[in-house]
Amino acid sequence: MSFYKFVLSLFRLYSKVFYKYEVIGAENIPNEGNLIIAANHKSNLDPIFVAAAIKNRTVAPIGKKELFENKILGKILTNLNVIPIDRENPGISTIKTILKKLKEGYAVGIFPEGTRIKGNGFGDAKAGLALFAVKGKANVVPISIISNYKIFNKVTIYIDKPISFEEYYKQKLSAEDYERLSGDVLEVIKDNYYKR
């Protein structure tokens, strides 16, 4: 068993033992093709809950580069396919790494708001999500994590249908365009969050 699969099995066990963990819409994760997973972000547990929900793809989440400053944690994150990113100034090499991961068949995990937003509110979507989707010719699956994160309480992972940005592949888009498209995905995440 690979390190990734071993850790994922621990994530699933943790989620089931300590939370009433429920996944709705797992069939909406395509088995192949370039794919980005986009979820809301309110807790440090979110990457665990999302990874545990996806059984048919290997996820490569994007994480802030500061997490890699601790050498032991950095090594673990690297073995879990986490892609370090400078949130203030993502360089061209990071963008290339993300596009490479998409081509290699990983489902790249992104939090559109770029950081944790606590409570019931949401932040603004950053341009990166749509940029990677368009440049990487990837569909985006919106995921809503619905929980108060209190131990033994319910956690619902609601996975919606993939969104295609194919109509934009050949267009010249501005930063504002990318932000707007990312915002459209976040709206789907928010709608499902508030409905449930």
Automatic annotation (TrEMBL):
**The protein's Enzyme Commission number:** 2.3.1.51
Tell me which residues make up the Phospholipid/glycerol acyltransferase domain: 35-148
Does this UniProt record's set of keywords contain Transport?
no
| Catalysed reactions listed for this entry | a 1-acyl-sn-glycero-3-phosphate + an acyl-CoA = a 1,2-diacyl-sn-glycero-3-phosphate + CoA
Under the heading SUPFAM superfamilies, the entry gives:
Glycerol-3-phosphate (1)-acyltransferase
Statement: the UniProt record of this protein carries the keyword Acyltransferase: yes
Keywords assigned by UniProt, alphabetized = Acyltransferase, Ligase, Lipid biosynthesis, Lipid metabolism, Phospholipid biosynthesis, Phospholipid metabolism, Transferase
Q: InterPro entries attached here?
A: AGP_acyltrans, Plipid/glycerol_acylTrfase
Gene Ontology MF term list: long-chain fatty acid [acyl-carrier-protein] ligase activity
Highest taxon, organism lineage: Bacteria
Q: Which CDD domains match?
A: LPLAT_AGPAT-like
Q: Which family does it belong to?
A: Belongs to the 1-acyl-sn-glycerol-3-phosphate acyltransferase family.
What does the UniProt entry state concerning the protein's domains?
The HXXXXD motif is essential for acyltransferase activity and may constitute the binding site for the phosphate moiety of the glycerol-3-phosphate.
Tell me what this protein is called: 1-acyl-sn-glycerol-3-phosphate acyltransferase
Species per Swiss-Prot/TrEMBL record:
Terrisporobacter glycolicus ATCC 14880 = DSM 1288
The gene is aas
